[in-house]
């Protein structure tokens, strides 16, 4: 019995470490910190993680096998979506063969976006307080939205942007539906009403999330987070769901992957469900 327990503990630590390494590499590419050449290394690490899981099936309970398998599927989907976004396949076209006099063009490389350009090229709000802030459906469609350093603000993001990145918020209410991912960092005393395929939360505290997510949410270095399922309580949310082709019945809001909690047999102390009697999802109608 002791040997099996040690094997499980060792597996938990190794799986979390390997999974986190892959996730960190994806985030670094998404944040323009490393070149997209690393996609090959990421795919190799995903395959190694799957092999590691397969080799552990002799002592892992069926529940943990399924949970870990789903997490690998989720991060593989994240990899595929990011790869398609940054390195789309080139369409085949007919053309003339190049002659010897033509200089071979340089290999296309991904150029990181300078930090000073982020808020010129991305749509969003920065350094605002005590305001109701709204982005329309036409403004956000397939765009990347950035929210940074907001205090006591209510932000309504209509439509379906591609991604939403949220940094350094305090006592705010955020309404957002992204077609791919939502990234939250360094937030406190804030309420999120959000829907996306992926949700990542870092360095945040005392924040409530009413969420719809098709994969598992990921948290790291967080405390006092609470989660509840998003309800379609307005026409705006219903329309965003329709545009994003989200299926309301396919909501994995209970699956929270805490990188700071290694055990898969005990619940993480860093998050909990919002008790049903305390659930009070804000409505954006109050701020339009």
Description:
The structure is a single chain. This protein is an alpha/beta fold and 288 residues long. The protein has helices at residues 2-30, 39-55, 62-86, 118-121, 137-140, 235-244, and strands at 123-129, 132-135, 144-151, 154-157, 163-170, 173-177, 181-188, 191-196, 198-202, 205-213, 217-220, 223-229, 256-258, 271-273. α1 (2-30) runs antiparallel to α2 (39-55) and α1 packs parallel to α3. Residues 90-121 have low confidence and may be disordered. This is C-CAP/cofactor C-like domain-containing protein. GO terms for molecular function: tubulin binding. Residues 98-261 form the C-CAP/cofactor C-like domain.
List its salient traits.
288 residues, alpha/beta, 7-stranded parallel β-sheet, globular, TBCC_N_sf, cytoplasm
Mean pLDDT: 82
Shape: globular
Biggest sheet: strands side by side, in what order?
Answer: 1-3-5-7-9-11-13
The helical percent reads: 25-40%
Percent strand equals 25-35%
The count of strands amounts to 14
Q: What does the main sheet amount to?
A: 7 strands, parallel
Q: Regions with pLDDT < 50 over 5+ consecutive residues? A: 90-121
Subcellular location: Cytoplasm
Protein name: C-CAP/cofactor C-like domain-containing protein
Keywords: Acetylation, Chaperone, Cytoplasm
GO molecular function: tubulin binding
């Amino acid at each position: 019995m002791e040997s099996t327990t040690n094997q499980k503990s060792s597996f938990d630590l190794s799986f979390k470490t390997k999974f986190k390494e892959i996730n960190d590499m994806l985030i670094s590419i998404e944040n323009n910190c490393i070149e997209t050449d690393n996609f090959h290394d990421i795919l190799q690490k995903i395959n190694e993680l799957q092999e590691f899981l397969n080799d552990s099936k002799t002592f892992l309970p069926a529940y943990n096998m399924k949970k870990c398998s789903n997490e690998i599927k989720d991060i593989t989907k994240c990899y595929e979506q990011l790869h398609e976004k940054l390195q789309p396949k080139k369409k085949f076209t007919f053309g003339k063969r190049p002659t010897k006099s033509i200089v071979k063009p340089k290999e296309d490389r991904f150029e990181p976006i300078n930090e000073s350009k982020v808020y010129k090229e991305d749509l969003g709000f920065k350094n605002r307080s005590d305001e109701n802030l709204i982005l329309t459906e036409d403004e956000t469609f397939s765009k990347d939205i950035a929210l940074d350093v907001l205090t006591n603000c209510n932000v309504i993001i209509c439509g379906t942007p591609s991604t939403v990145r949220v940094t350094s918020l305090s006592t705010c209410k955020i309404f957002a539906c992204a077609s791919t991912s939502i990234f939250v960092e360094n937030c406190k005393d804030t309420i999120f009403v959000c829907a996306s395929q992926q949700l990542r939360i870092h360095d945040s505290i005392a924040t409530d999330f009413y969420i719809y997510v098709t994969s598992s949410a990921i948290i790291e270095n967080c405390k006092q987070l609470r989660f509840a399922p998003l309800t379609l309580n307005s026409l705006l949310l219903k329309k965003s769901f329709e545009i994003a082709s989200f299926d309301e019945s396919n909501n994995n809001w209970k699956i929270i992957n805490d990188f700071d909690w290694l055990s898969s047999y005990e619940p993480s102390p860093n998050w909990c469900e919002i008790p049903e009697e305390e659930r009070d999802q804000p409505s954006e109608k109050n701020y339009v």
